[in-house]
Amino acid sequence: MVRVVDTPPAPTPAPGTPKGRPGIAHVWIMVGQRLALGLLTLFVVSLLIFGATELLPGDFAEAVLGQAATPETVAAIRRELGLDQPAPVRYFDWLGGVLQGDFGRSLASGNRPVADMIGNRLGNTLFLAGYAAAMAVPLALILGILAALWRNSVFDRASNSAALGAISFPEFFVAYILIFLLAQSGYFPSMARVPAGADLGERLYRAFLPALTLTLVVTAHMMRMTRAAIINLLASPYIEMARLKGMSPMRVILRHALPNAIAPIANVVAINMAYLITGVVVVEVVFVYPGLGQLMVDSVARRDIPVVQAVALIFAAAYVLLNLAADVISTLSNPRLLYPR
Amino acid sequence: MAKPVLLEMRDVRIEGRSGDDAWLPIINGVDLTLHRGEVLGLIGESGAGKSTLGLAAMGFVRDGCRIAGGAITFDGIDLVRASEATRRGLRGKRIAYVAQSAAASFNPAHRLMEQYVEAPVVHGVMRRAQAEHDAVELYRRMQLPNPGEIGFRYPHQVSGGQLQRAMTAMAMACRPDLIVFDEPTTALDVTTQIEVLAAIRDIVAQFDTAAIYITHDLAVVAQMADRIKVLLRGDEVEEADTRMMLAHPKQDYTRTLWAVRSLERPERPPVEGTPVLSVAGVSASYGSVEVLSDVRFDIPPSRTVAVVGESGSGKSTVARVITGLLPPTAGEVRLEGQALPPDYRRRSRDELRRVQMIYQMADTALNPKLPLREQIGRPAQMYLGLRGRALRERVRELLRMIEMEPDVYIDRLPGELSGGQKQRVGIARALAAEPTVVICDEVTSALDQIVQEGILKLLDRLQGELGLAYMFITHDLATVRAIADEVVVMRQGRVVERGPKRQVFAPPHHPYTELLLSSVPEMDPDWLTGVLARRVTAPG
Amino acid sequence: MDAFGPLGWLLLIAGFVAGAAAAGWLFRAGLVLVTRGELRRSLRGAPLTASFGMLVILIYLFVAVFAPLLAPYGERAVVGAQFLPWSEAHWLGTDNLGRDMASRMIYGARNTVGIALATTLLAFLLGTALGLLAAILGGWIDQGMSRIVDVFMAIPSLIFALLLLTIFGTSIVTLILVIAVIDATRVYRIARSVAQGIVVMDFIEAARLRGEGMVRLVFREILPNAMAPLVAEFGLRFCFVFLAISALSFLGLGIQPPTADWGSMVRENATLITFGDITPLLPAGAIALLTVAINFVVDWQLYRASGLKD
């Protein structure tokens, strides 16, 4: 138990230096750096999404025309789409358009602007994801904290096994079981088409089954990860110290564990919100929900590349932003970063 | 003893749950009596159960443990039968705890003051403003720098020795009747340790607080405790008044506890000829930070050079330069007069073979997945080209050299060995290369005293038989006394003093050597008082 | 089936759990009988979930290997009318084209599991090799590879797979390659961090100072110590790949007809569910059962690995 490791000692601060007062400026510099890094990542991701289409065997234009490709039609399309320009020029044209909300025109749906096709659907998908998150996050955090608090109890073992099961189920399996159990008997609609102008209650009712499917799938993951993050923390000597100071279990969790758990929990939530994005695609197809995921699947089948690019970019941006948010929260909750030596 | 009894333990038995859900005993029936204002030292090696017993004095067991029997009475309150709420009401208020690693035991999310006032406010002893005022006073008494301001820092902004004093102040916050000190200075350097020991001893005496002082270091406990209780694997070995115990230990086990300190090999005459290894004016840096500057010393053949220093002195970095892991920015390392290439990747097989290394942590120094046959055999196979039967015979011979029975151990994995045995295998692996110099990096500091002695004796014997030269890196001056011929004292990347052992250990000293030597606790119970008195009269 | 009621469902679930536990118990007892030594000792300590998991995995492998012998009809043969109900001739009825559902389930084991396994193996070879290399070499090679992987991981994997499948088309080979490359980035992360934990140990330093070459470092010093977490990761990764391929097939973008595949079978027959027929749930259930089984076994292995440490 007695180990002497040859590490440099904490340098003793020179007496009299004002160190207790936080310098706020460097925190914002740090957050700014994280933001810049996030923007850089987004830029590289856009490059990757655009560049991937450059890998297309043959040519974009041939892909559009398929069997009907003749040298003349190909040349015409190439000119029309600006494919005769060098790749970097086309990339910056595309990116410039994206930044102004112009994602180009669809190849498959009669030249419609991609932005029009995305418009409403983006709102619908955000609504569904937000709906699921609003149910899943509190549920998962509470269950995870309880499982950590009562670890190795019957509750812990049962919830752990159930979560393990739920993680293993494909989203469409969960979705169809719910349809079978709840839609069959007419409690909830299995088709989640939302009529235009429906009020909030109606929308919540119609989107309940898809949201519940996502909640079940994501909660299991999030709960297990929350539990692991807290248990990791409860083994720390400062938690034992708090107990030895005579603090109640509730105070130990809330005052001593939770402030240190903000960073890991923020990460857990971010990872799972990002996972929602993947889940959304399948769930929207099952419930015929008019969102971005369904649009993407249809467009992949039709090889409508501008639409796929646009949707992929939106999903990737959401993913990057979520991770960025978790990163900033972690930074702001860590005194080691806020108040350097 | 006229004072009333504060804590009474009768036949306390504590068990812990093992991997396969069986309950194994940790403490098998120990009695303990502590009077008001008395300091009891609990001493024992790792696995003796001293921490478990100390926590039991607070009515507390760690997760996965339980009190299987016996009675614990604190000031008339039965801690075993009392409700959890009652026990919670005592902890932090009437019984406080000071942990081994203050850096890990302070919550990183809150300022020191926040953590100080928590117990007094929650237990309703005093109001926040009063507690804060009181904290500053205690910080001052604990001789912390800037007592008025240090409470507003976060734990990571304060050094280890200061944190340990801040934690003692925090334990004092409610003026408890009893404080349990769990190895409070083990993680500190000797020169820091002495300050913390003095501060703890003074404050405990000032408030007439009773204390249980847990440690593995007899010399430390001799300074702090009125009485000493020796534990071995959950059983009491003996208990006596401190002076009595030091002068006349009754049990053999107690006597062996400080056996290593009696091991002192006489210095041998210096040898003529080229040194086996020369560190010639070496400087090195990590990035832009210079960690070694102009280090020079020689290792004569068949002799032991001890490199001594506290953490951050650069003593382990010297080993990294010699082995070629960290190429120096200036100077060179010579092996039997020939300059070694600075980077180990540029060294020939024979150059690599002649310098071998033994590590501090035998756990991580051996590949957990290789049987001893391969751990020890690999260098012999690589460097000396031994194969088949010859290799097998050589491995058996090496195992016999480190006093491990070949038939029993040759196919074992490191996980099936004790800590001391692992360290022996590390020695055998180094010997298998038939080296000229062996670098021993804190090889005994992770081991219990008795095991340490065995390893030191083994190294000493092998040196005699094989004519090896050792470079012995250590922070422990007792080990230096036991084994060294020459001593190199390092501080902040520089050699402060070097020479034959007798010369370095005898006055006149360099001021830092003096500080280092005088900070090493001695068995004499009056040692701490004496040192502090001398330092006051002779400032500097 | 619709007159089942909540109590009936509860009984059914309870019955299934009890049956699974009993099967797991019997299987473990059998295994303990036929094995010996270290293996036997660890099997005896296996929880029922894990032994049930091992049993399920074995059954799936058996079915996948012997599919042509077990299936009553051919994989693609049209044998009757569409959507026939369950009968003696067609245990699970027929599908939307009049093919035997039971036979397609059995062939599905071979196709879906086989493709997922090939993909996982490829992802692992690629990911571990690069991850170990990055950990051992360090420096700018490590930095460079890790930054590239970071960018790849900034796009959700299903979305990235959809993008790539749009470009390369949906054949089995592109499916395997696309998923393998995407998952290799995740394996790389794990392999690198596991190896980094090992590379800083003193025994690796000792091996380097001894003058050991790269091959010996990787295969004798690092890999044996990285095996436990990597095997667990292989199990988990297989589940992810398996679920991803099934999801793509379900979306009509993965394994293409007429190949029998569980994901596509759900999609092709989904309409039956709205009529209260659970047949389309069976392939989905087959997917779920295998992933549950693997997760149970991996969970046990991870618990053992963490328990042995202290």
Structure description:
The complex is a heterotrimer of chains A (341), B (540) and C (310). Chain A has 341 residues and is mainly α. Chain A is 73% helix and 0% strand. Residues 1-22 of chain A have low confidence and may be disordered. By secondary structure, chain B is an alpha/beta fold. Chain B has two domains: 5-258, P-loop containing nucleotide triphosphate hydrolases (Rossmann fold), CATH 3.40.50; 277-518, P-loop containing nucleotide triphosphate hydrolases (Rossmann fold, 3-Layer(aba) Sandwich). In chain B, the strands form four sheets. Chain B has a six-stranded mixed beta sheet with strand order 6-7-8-3-9-10, sandwiched between helices. Chain C has 310 residues and is mainly α. Helix content of chain C is 76%, strand content 0%. In chain C, helix 1 (5-34) packs across helix 3 (48-65) and helix 5 runs parallel beside helix 8 (172-199). Chain C is globular, with a radius of gyration of 23 Å. Chains A and C meet through helix 1, helix 6, helix 7, helix 11 and helix 12 of A and helix 6, helix 7, helix 10 and helix 12 of C.
Main β sheet profile of chain A: none
Please estimate the helix content of chain C: over 70%
What is the name of the CATH class of the domain at 110-306 in chain C?
Answer: Mainly Alpha
Mean pLDDT of chain A, to the nearest integer, reads 79
How many E strands of chain C?
Answer: 0
CATH class of chain A: Mainly Alpha
